[in-house]
Amino acid sequence: MSEFKSGFVSIIGRTNVGKSTLINNLVGEKIAITTDKCQTTRTAIKAIVNRKNSQIIFVDTPGIHKPKTKLGETMNETAWGALGDVDLVLFIVEATSDKIGKGDTLILQKLREKKAKVILLINKIDLVKKEKLLELIELYRKEYDFQAIIPISALKNDNTNKILDEIEKHIPVGPAYYDIEEYTDQTVRQISEEIVREKALKLLDQEVPHGILVEIDKMNLRKTTKKEDIYDIEATIYVIRKSHKSIVIGKNGSMLKRIGMYARQDIERMLGTKVNLKIWVKVKENWQENTNILKRFKSE
Questions:
Q1: ∠249-42-242 over CA atoms, to 5°?
Q2: Which residues pair with 239 in a beta bridge?
């Protein structure tokens, strides 16, 4: 019988390369929110995959980018910090690249400094021809001694099963760190906050999303008059400008209603029960520079 293995695996890459989509596919649950906006993930999120002979704990990180605020700096610090004290790193790049860009070059440099064990994942292979993919594989192979190079499509779930098999080869023998029923270290409250933010990101104009902060103010489970379970959830969306507040609310509250409707549906799926969701919108100027608020985005 094979010895049980367990290990921590950090996922790193530039913004919008598909890290969160991959995490959700590997775990089989919605752990990280996904949008086509940059810098969607703000914190290091742990996601747990339990297999017959192993437990793999993934650490999904914010995308590496050029920061414009203290929030951006904190997100980068969190991503770099996740390279320490892990057994393996998954480095995700896009198959659509013709060369190794500045961001990926910087990541490779950090990986060399850490002398990290790395599996390279080349994502979005459904968008390129095989010849181009082979050229990109050769480019990266010259740059780093990867444990493996796996072309994937996180969106279409192509080749993702190979990732877990490959990871198992490179993590140490060890105990299960989490209960086998667990699939994330996030609380229900944190996931609910992220779901509300995801719906706002997907529905709002480009200039608004990066200034959004969501906080759950109240989350209570009660019985209805028909003795059915229902969660009463109250959330606040904070924005950095008054003009953003009116955009989030929309004409006659139409945008806020749409955000609330889609968020409620996802939260109900997660909780397996009915949800009564109320959302308010408030202005909190310069929160992205507020040290006390940014503590919640720092990795422990």
A1: 25
A2: 283
Q: Is the pTM of the predicted complex or chain greater than 0.85?
A: no
All domains in the chain, ordered by first residue: 5-170 (3.40.50.300), 188-297 (3.30.300.20)
CA–CA separation, 34 and 24 (whole Å): 9
Buried b (16+ CB within 10 A) or exposed e, 248-278: bbbeeeebbeebbebbbebbeeebeeebebe
Identity of the amino acid at 263: A
- Rounded distance, CA 219 to CA 8, Å? 31
Band (208; pLDDT cuts 50, 70, 90): low
For residues 147 and 141, the answer to whether their CB atoms sit within 8 Å is no
Tokens of 54: 């192993």
Q: How far is the CA of 127 from the CAs of 94, 95, 97, 150, 179, in angstroms?
A: 10, 8, 11, 16, 38
Residue 204 token pair = 């709002």
Can you tell me the distance from the alpha carbon of 83 to that of 97, in angstroms, rounded to the nearest whole number? 24
Residues 191-203 have a mean pLDDT of: 86
Q: What is the pLDDT of residues 68-99, one digit of tens each?
A: 555 455 455 555 455 667 899 999 999 998 88
> How big is the CA angle at 54 (ends 49 and 58), to the nearest 5 degrees?
35
Q: Which of 56-65, 149-158, 288-297 has the lowest mean pLDDT?
A: 288-297
Q: How far apart are CA 294 and CA 172, in angstroms?
A: 34
Residue 145, Cβ neighbours under 10 Å: how many? 8
Distance CA(213)–CA(47), nearest Å, equals 22
Q: DSSP character for 184?
A: B
